[in-house]
């Protein structure tokens, strides 16, 4: 069953909203509770082979020694998120809509966006790593304007999920 975001946010009123500063694992548990309550499928851990394919793709297409260990740890726990308009890309190299490689091939093909590595999106934002600033960032999807920066993937993910909840 699919609900629009406004309806879900109204339903959440009875649920305790996570506090800022909660550690990522607590935020992820809260997200899983909500997903279960609304019959969303919770992703299983990524296949080791798929993570290796992403690592090779990043090395071949972005930068030789670049990798994102926190994203890897996230993928080892759950292979992406899709909930209430939020997508954190999965590791499936054949997923044409929500896969890390496909999304980055599409968005990085435009030279205006090639200095980002993309990890996810919503209807209004992109979540990426800025190769020039060496920071994780939230960007406005319509204009690509900078919204906020983060020191780590986990900090970015925690912020994104807290805003969703």
From TrEMBL:
Classification via InterPro entries: Knr4/Smi1-like_sf
Gene3D superfamilies: SMI1/KNR4-like
Domain of life: Bacteria
Protein name, UniProt field: Knr4/Smi1-like domain-containing protein
């Amino acid at each position: 069953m699919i609900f629009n975001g406004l309806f879900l946010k109204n339903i959440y009123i009875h649920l305790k909203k996570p506090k800022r500063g909660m550690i990522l694992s607590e935020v992820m548990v809260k997200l899983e509770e909500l997903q279960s309550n609304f019959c969303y499928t919770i992703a299983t851990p990524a296949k080791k082979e798929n993570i290796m394919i992403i690592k090779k793709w990043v090395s071949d297409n972005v930068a030789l020694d670049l990798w994102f260990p926190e994203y890897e740890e996230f993928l080892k726990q759950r292979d992406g998120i899709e909930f209430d308009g939020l997508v954190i890309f999965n590791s499936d190299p054949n997923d044409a809509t929500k896969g890390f490689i496909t999304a980055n091939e599409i968005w990085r093909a435009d030279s205006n966006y090639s200095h980002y590595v993309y990890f996810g999106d919503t209807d209004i934002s992109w979540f990426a790593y800025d190769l020039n600033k060496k920071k994780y960032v939230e960007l406005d999807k319509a204009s690509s304007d900078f919204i906020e920066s983060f020191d780590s993937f986990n900090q970015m993910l925690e912020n994104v999920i807290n805003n969703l909840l």
